[in-house]
Amino acid sequence: xxxxxxxxxxAEVFGRLEETSANTEMVGILGDFFSDLTPEQxxxxxxxxxxxxTPDYEGPEFGLASKLxxxxxxxxxxxxxxxxxxxxxxHGDLGTVARMLAENKEQGELTLDDVFSELxxxxxxxxxxxxxxxxxxxxxxxxRATPQEAKYIVRVVLGTLRLGVGDMTFLQxxxxxxxxxxxxxxxxxxxxxxxxxxxxxTEQAMREGVESLANExxxxxxxxxxxxxxxxxxxxxxxxxxxxxxxxxxxxxGERVQAHLLPDGGVKLFSRRHExxxxxxxxxxxxxxxSFHGDQAIVEGEIVAIDPETGDLQPFQKLMQRRRKYxxxxxxxxxxxxxxLFDMLAFNGESFLQKPLRYRKTVLEERFxxxxxVKPAKYITTHDLGEVESFFAEAADWGAEGVIVKDVESPxxxxxxxxxxxxxxxxxxxxxxxxxxxxVIGAIYGTGRRTGTYGSLLVATYDPNEEKYYSLTxxxxxxxxxxxxxxxxxxxxxxxxxxxxxxxxxxxxxVWFYPNQVIExxxxxxxxxxxxxxxxxxxxxxxxxxxRFPRFLRWREDKRADQATTPQEVYNLYR
Length: 575
Ligand code: AMP
Description:
Elements: H1 7-19, H2 23-34, H3 39-49, H4 66-77, H5 81-91, H6 94-101, H7 112-124, H8 130-144, H9 147-158, H10 167-179, H11 185-194, H12 198-208, E1 228-231, H13 238-241, E2 246-251, E3 255-261, E4 267-270, H14 282-291, E5 297-305, H15 316-320, H16 328-334, E6 337-347, E7 350-351, H17 357-367, E8 374-376, E9 379-382, H18 385-398, E10 402-407, E11 417-425, E12 436-445, E13 454-463, E14 468-475, H19 481-485, H20 487-491, E15 495-496, E16 503-504, E17 511-513, E18 518-522, E19 525-529, E20 544-548, E21 551-555, H21 567-574
Parallel strand pairs: 1-11, 6-8, 14-16
Antiparallel strand pairs: 2-9, 2-10, 3-4, 3-5, 5-6, 6-7, 10-11, 12-13, 12-17, 12-18, 13-14, 15-17, 18-21, 19-20
Helix pairs in contact: 2-10, 3-12, 4-5, 4-8, 6-9, 7-8, 8-9
The chain binds adenosine monophosphate (AMP).
């Protein structure tokens, strides 16, 4: 093991990963590379592979837009900005430009530690003069880099690294490096679900062994990956999936929140994507603190917008107006919110993940009595199908999105979508009875009224096992004129010049996007198609599933691409 590793070696590994789209090959490359790293080096490379220097919930973003990178390159390379801009226009990627501008050196001079610490400084630079500081740090880095190093450094700061290495592929590689077999990924994955800090997990596994992650417990202030619900096609089939009594609970149409009540009396709120959303909801922070009896807790609920006049619950879109950096105080009165709490993951330092749901609920209700902004999610406990059905009808009448049925004996399965929680939605809008959250992977140019923007979007499901995106349909209906006009602005940061390795489709759109943004769509029917690929492995026929007559419903900023509808879910609906 080498106490000092050159960044050139890391950049070479990135190059090899970028060239392949085969997961097994990626696992092999990562397995070899990580077996020669120290735990500290492993931590750094693990972050860099995701284009980060800290876990995402800590949030510093590099904050370097193309313009600043152009200035850094001009500065570091003694070129004019116009020259760099012209090269950028020609090649469409500043990483490529940086590579072309770098001197060809035999030997790199940057170590992994150099690059990591300078990138960290760039990420954390704040306040007055920070922009200039970022530019000078970056120009210094690229002026010392080899062509390949410069390309990846620039892509990291721009947020366009896109090596196509999913978290599960990475964990298989790490498992291979540490045990010679990728099968111990399961244990690493468990650790990562509870403590989704890829660097910390990697370092711990390398220092203390893979097994040490088997009993990972939630850490106060670090978001646990949320448990998700499977889909129930017919409410009458609940007890085919669950033997035990169930909680049937209102499904609220808002934003999921994981609230951490910290030992020092502070509160942190995390979204389902692990963004720190505390500053958007000062009202809720106060209400949570007022309600809570205890030292420390992690609880989950759904934040819903309330009509200030009538007190009625408002749809998700209204709540999204609270997602803002400025005028937060003004919006507290305009769009008040309530959090409907439904689960407890830890209490006074003790992990509740393995405790049965009924126990977690009891403690939750004891410790978080209702007040202005804090409410318990409404539910009944039953083992009787008739009662499940009538509670669903009541929920639908009241205006809930549907119900979530939960096995009272089940543990909290961080990061997984299983059958211990089942959602059933009151969605009369579609024949299929449910909507799909799909990832935008391409677009087709518009014609006629749509000239100058996109006429339709190519969208995909996400398979978390393969870590690949499979096309499902092309959606052009359902957009407003304004929404259509904004598509290029909204999507073009994700534009890439060829199909990425993690996308599987036979479609050839005019423009490809790196899978990043999620939209919710509905459709009339699922059919087998020769060009779409969703669930193709599960079908007996040639081809994959396609959604016919799709309509756009809304952007799902609260979902990451890897939280999209899966091919398996689409297949279950088809069946
Ligand atoms: P979906 O986004 O359709 O996959 O539905 C899952 C989401 O429903 C969760 O992530 C929560 O944000 C939301 N939700 C609303 N009410 C509940 C509830 N009572 N229990 C669990 N999740 C809920």
